[in-house]
Design goal:
By secondary structure, the chain is α+β, with helices and mostly antiparallel strands. The protein is built from seven helices and five strands, in the order E-E-E-H-H-H-H-E-E-H-H-H. Helix content is 37%, strand content 10%.
């Protein structure tokens, strides 16, 4: 099985008008200010990860006896591969165990925030942010609110 190209270094090289940061390959990434404040999307990713993913993958991306540590997994896969796994799921048969990641492509509580979850895990993968809720974060931009409402189908 061919392996996808690894992710680019996580350093943010550009920020768009919605406040999202991207790496050299144009994939979503995080930004941590010298005072420790994180960008809005990393903070949102923390919130979304802990509402949808931590039950299986453990708090703060650390893994569990049931599912792998996603903070380690994102070190070896790029955004496109991560996105594909989230959308379509994955099944691994090894060592007599059948491990299944369900397909979440129809779950708006995941898909509307998949970039956020990815950047949060990238920040955790290099210990750029500590475990737990980020102490401070940038404000949510109006464009981020607009995109969220559009994805969720809100009329606001």
């Amino acid at each position: 099985m061919a392996k996808a190209e690894p992710p680019a270094p996580s350093k943010a090289v550009k920020q768009d008008d919605s406040g999202k940061y991207v790496d050299a390959k144009g994939d979503p990434t995080f930004n941590v200010k010298p005072d420790g404040a994180v960008d809005w999307y990393t903070y949102s990713g923390f919130r979304r990860y802990h509402s949808e993913c931590h039950v299986c993958h453990g708090p703060d991306g650390e893994g569990s006896t049931y599912a792998p540590a996603l903070k380690e997994s994102v070190k070896g896969i790029n955004y496109a591969e991560f996105y594909g796994i989230v959308v379509g799921g994955r099944q691994n048969l090894s060592g007599g165990e059948n491990k299944v990641m369900p397909a979440l492509g129809d779950n708006k509580n995941v898909m509307c925030y998949v970039d956020d979850i990815y950047v949060y895990l990238r920040a955790r993968s290099g210990d750029s942010i500590p475990r737990g809720r980020p102490a401070s974060h940038e404000e949510k931009s109006p464009k981020a609110t607009e995109a969220e409402h559009a994805c969720l189908g809100d009329q606001n």
